[in-house]
């Protein structure tokens, strides 16, 4: 299984000149915890996450340090503190984003993606094609991939699974009732189609998803994974 088989393709991106307040609003409204930063030329220049907003001065959470005496190690420490100050007080995404971004390409094996996430201690990595971001793969995407394995060892037949998934997504893209189905909600493993859907999805839609899967040649089975409905607190 490769990055292209499980990645999120509807990627929310942000501009480096976007204000921090607008960034926070977008993350909250879209229900995401991070986003790639793309410049006017379409180039990936950084990545920003909710973790970059934890110590903002607007909420009184800015970090405070005192460096009183001068020495070589304190100079290094002062540089670190200066970077923290920029992140806590900067007004634009370009001030708070991480510029050393770990990336993968579409053909990267899921095992290698998982190892990269662990090694870099990050929650997500952009997926690239010809220098452009075409997806994003997170720990959640990998967890779903694990859920689709049923504990079985990897097999040779990824091309068949990928073909089934492509045909199924193409079919769903034609249907208005399936407009809220995202590619990352569909994983095919050993000919079995796995759907992730919310518990509040109408039963008719869930049945239609099963029927759509069963119409694709080569499909050996269908499994529905029901998630708790999203909760939006009232303010």
User: Strands across the major sheet, in which order?
Assistant: 3-4-5
Q: CATH homologous superfamily of the largest domain?
A: CBS-domain
Task: Kindly report the average pLDDT value.
Answer: 82
Q: What are the secondary-structure elements, in order, as H or E?
A: HHEEHHEHEEHHEEHE
C-alpha termini separation = 42 Å
CATH class type of the largest domain: Alpha Beta
Number-wise, the strands total 8
Task: Please estimate the helix content.
Answer: 25-40%
User: Unreliable stretches, pLDDT < 50, 5 or more residues?
Assistant: none
Largest sheet: 3 strands, mixed
Radius of gyration: 21 Å
Percent strand equals: 15-25%
List the domain count as a whole number. Answer: 2
Please name the CATH architecture of the largest domain. Roll
Number of helices: 8
Report on the structure:
The chain has helices at residues 3-6, 20-30, 72-89, 93-96, 110-120, 139-147, 158-173, 203-214, and strands spanning 34-38, 44-49, 104-105, 124-129, 132-138, 186-189, 192-198, 221-227. It has 235 residues and is an alpha/beta fold. It has 2 domains: 1-147, CBS-domain (Roll), CATH 3.10.580; 150-230, Histidine-containing Protein, Chain: A (2-Layer Sandwich), CATH 3.30.1340. The chain has a 3-stranded mixed β-sheet. The model has no long low-confidence stretch (mean pLDDT 82).
Question: Quick gist of this model?
Answer:
Helices cover 36% and strands 19% of the residues. By secondary structure, it is an alpha/beta fold.
Task: Please supply descriptive tags for the structure shown above.
235 residues; alpha/beta; CBS-domain; Histidine-containing Protein, Chain: A; three-stranded mixed β-sheet; 36% helix
